[in-house]
Specification:
35% of the residues lie in helices and 18% in strands. The protein has 141 residues and is α/β, with parallel strands linked by helices. The longest helix is centred in the last third of the chain and has 19 residues. The radius of gyration is 14 Å and the shape is globular.
Length: 141
């Protein structure tokens, strides 16, 4: 498997469809034939999605790329720990969600620039949430 590229996938806006899309994409076994995917974001959000949708998957929390297992059905998540579930609501625009989305993009880019991953995929974001977090972009982030 070392010959397959490592693809870092951001969660997007945690309060929106990004985490669900990411998990469902990683539940396609053929994806693992061409790459070694991992999610970058908050494990608690991905766990909540799996539970809410009754998906047959488990989250494997990692703190560095070397810990990733890249096994189908066990989703590697580079956990950023920036969502407080007690203050978080799915479907709600918030500075916390915007900051989490921004930090996942920042981290995946850092990992790519450091040569730890080979490519990045960014999940859908909400610019209003990112703006509420204090990151102001007129165009694409």
């Amino acid at each position: 498997m070392p010959d397959k590229p490592i693809i870092g996938i951001t969660m997007g806006d945690p309060a929106s469809i990004g985490p669900e899309i990411a998990i469902k994409a990683l539940l396609n076994k053929t994806l693992y034939d061409s790459c070694r995917p991992l999610l970058v974001g908050d494990a608690v959000v991905f766990d909540a999605i799996i539970e809410r949708l009754h998906l047959d998957a488990a989250i494997h929390v990692i703190k560095n790329i070397g810990e990733a297992e890249f096994k189908f059905g066990v989703i590697d998540v580079f956990d950023l720990h920036n969502i407080e579930m007690g203050q978080f609501n799915f479907g709600e625009i918030s500075a916390m969600a915007g900051e989490a989305a921004f930090q996942s993009v920042k981290k995946v880019i850092e990992l790519a620039l450091a040569g730890e991953i080979d490519a990045t995929v960014t999940g859908p974001i909400n610019k209003k949430s990112i703006n509420e977090a204090g990151h102001h972009y007129a165009g694409h982030t």
